[in-house]
What does this fold into?
Amino acid sequence: MSVVLLVVIALPLLGAALLLAGQPAAGAGADGAGGRRAQWTGVAFSGATLALTVALAAGFDRDDARSMQFETDKVWASSLDLHFHVGIDGISLPLLVLTALLTFLVAVHSLGTVPAGGSTNAYLALVLVLEAGVLGTFAALDLILFFLFFEVVLIPMYFLIARWGTPGERGPAAFKFILYTLLGSAVMLLGFLLVQAHTGTFDITQLTVGAGDGMSRGVQITAFLAVALGLAVKVPMWPLHTWLPDAHTAAPTGGSVLLAGVLLKMGTYGLIRIAVPVLPEGAELFAPYLAAFGTVGIVYGSLVCLALLRSPDGDLKRVIAYSSVGHMGFALLGIATLTPQGINGALFVNIGHGLITGLLFFLAGAVKERSGSVLIGRIGGSLYARAPRLGGLLAFAAVAGLGLPGLAGFWGELLAMYGAYDPAAGLDRPLYRVLLAAAGIGTVLTAAYMLGIVRKVCAGPGLGAVSPVAAEPVARIEPLPDIGRVDVLAWGPLVVLTVVAGLWPASVLAVTDPAVRALLGGGS
Amino acid sequence: MTVAISPQGMPTASAHDSLSLVQDIDWAAVAPPLALAVAALVVLLADLFLAGPRKVWLAWISLGGLAAALVLLLPLNDGDTRATFCAPANPTTTPGCSYVVDDFTLVLQLVLIASAAVVVLLSMPMTAPRPWADERDVDSGVPGGEYHFLLLASATGAVTLVAARDLLTLVVALETLSLPAFALVGLRRDGRGGEAALKYFLMSVAATAVLLFGISLLYGATGTVYLDRVAAALTALDPRLETVAATGAALTLAGFAFKVAAVPFHFWVPDTYRGAPVPVAAYLSVVSKTAGFGGLLLVAGIALRPYAHVWGPALAVLAALTMTVGNLVAVRVATGSGDAVRLLAWSSIAQSGYVLVPFGTAAGEGADLSERLSASVAYLAVYAVMNLGAFAVVTAVGRDRPTGLLSDYRGLLRARPAPALAMAFFLLCLAGLPPGLMGLFAKVTVFQAVVAGGTGWLAVVMAVNVVIGLYYYLVWTALLFAPPVPGAPPAAEGTPEGPGTLGAAGALRVPMPFALAIAVAFVLGVVLSVAPQIVLQVLTVPGLLG
It folds into this structure.
């Protein structure tokens, strides 16, 4: 059965290779038959990958979610002590399915619209390589292998932004993305090597059981600093987040969805899987800092969003990007409590944020396509009147994003804050209470800007009236194309899962909780 | 005299042998450089008898000599250490042998010979009148016979250098490597080649003088030229001689630092690479540099090991400077003049810095020094593949687009998908990012050595440098995939012209030897990315440096 996991990682790569080999001759338009074939190839391979991850989830032994399943362990380069060691437990399984789902939806979305910039084949091939990198990261159980898959996503994401992004801003944004995250992962690699130099192994499962054995407190602190710093760039943690708004704003819709939906999760996943259990003493020392920076991110992210909403050229995608900084702040806060509740909360934030922000970016892309602008001042408002279903859906996603109970955004934030109320023994309890209060204020601010989006974009006068918001002097409110068939296919699953995860949180928590407890239990 | 040396390095020669004044030579051990020397002479003679189109045979003879040398390496790879040209052992000293074939020698000889063969492939259209050469190559006017003779002679020096185990053989081999290289740089009959050669010559001669001075001081202090005896003498040195020995050590290392183009001994590199024919630049940046590092590894790792606490920190600073200066200037070249060969020159300086990094950890624990230095050997092997690959594509592209600017590479994917994809792969290998896994593994190896050695600051400097380096490699890679400039003449594709004719409107034709060179480097690169253990096994060879 373990071969299924290998196929899950290899299948997107195979699809990418086929797409690149089938590259139509230069000059053939993206709309030609070649482009159609590429779109269906992308859908087929990402769909097959999704089906296999669902099969993995079905075959996953839920009663034993704490231990690794579908494991493969082969020596790759013995001199480096590098093993091709992959496997999944309750922590990685939901993220694996989320990744396959979002990639599939991006491929489906490409059936309707392919961003201009290059050949359809190359676009979908890059998306598939990206998927393989993320899936590999969530399955890797060897530090070097984890690092390797972590790096695999860089080049495809760079090209997705640099070639298919918004003209004018994509070049610098793409460089900023790749240089920032590479610096992070290079520092992370140093931490991994330090761990190996003292423990003699790169194997994550062994290191988790060892829980810091063989490393002095000083080594653990140094290694944690390096690993967490590298991962914090990816999360992104305030103040290392500055690459993110530019990258999100410049990226094409599919790129933004994947960037927010799955790439950011690699950072929080790495903290949960590696930094905290492998380096417990380092984690204990730095947890308050992580929590503080996370909380600053929550408040800062929402304040920036509010400012962007007020500014005449606030960018809808930029608002969503900064909202990601805030949401990931909740994940950081949850992790930094070092409690099962907090870490479960962080994992739930990951899932919820992946679904909701993925949907928000899809919708922002749709609004941009239809109204011709992504600047809030120029979209023109009145989306309820111009495209009622699109407007309704945007309002739904915004409300889910503010953490309304009953939707997927709620449970993660609640659990993270619950963990902060009662952090692990040895952590400064009053500090966490203060942070909890600040995070609480952050949720209010989040609600303010999310509703602000609804007010500025969705609400407004009816059809035929003169637009009060649009920049043009006299602009009539005209109808926009509403949700099409492809859109229903691409967005429907996200809506359904947002509701399901909100009403039935146990669907995720029952899988993650045993694994989280096993992780925190470590050797003790 | 042939001395069989057991893996522990203890001599098993009888006392009778060691008193004999007539030396037996282990011909098998010296066969690879000998084959190259013979091939060099054959090329020189054959040049007299071959005329016109038949001069293409010169290149094939060159390749044949290199192939023979490769084959002659095979029987040496039996796990035993062979030593020849040995001084008689006496009770107070360790055995002194001038020429030793061990795992270290074999690995580097393999890299050197294979790299030289790729350079010969790259030189073919430039030196052969037919069937590949055409008016584009005639301009360069490089005489084939002399060119291949000099190349083989220089390669002989390189191959000997990594087997040398005494200071004098090292110097002689180094000069055998360098003297023909000056001529190679200047062989092109235009002003630029002459200027580049003169610059290279003057700097090199100065470095040789420094090196010889250093060696004479070391000899004066220790009374021996054999590397292992120098090490033994340095550990039990008369305190009054310590200043002399330390000065000698510093000057010797400075001489080698010039060869490997370490900052601040790097000034000759960009101008020399730019002025030389591109295949010669490839030769200098791979073969000459690998041999130079071989010498540095031998001198630092064996002879001067007792002074590791002195040269370790010094070389750490040198490594940090080398990669930082190399990368920063490369970024300036990429954003400024955009000269492809100059960019590769600065990039190769930066890469030298990465190779130097394991040296910088030497001050740590002395016991497993050779284990850490073997990371440099692994990096050199990988560097040879990726850098030669990049130079091969630059040679091929430069033939049709002689401006040699990065902008020539815009839209190369449309015009020539295969070389463009290969170039992207080599550049990402040099940057150390997937899919260039080979380069990534090499960098991880160096990082591992430096973290194990406990030189944290150097690791951080290198991490920052990897990020800086990514910038210009990525600029170049992105150009390959960028759409062609609107308004530029469309690249003519599939025009029914024979090989070796000028393609219309800048279309790129890749002659067979170039295609072969690129393919060899690409296949090797892919193989080493999938199965890095092939190279990385040098890390776990016990006692790679004796």
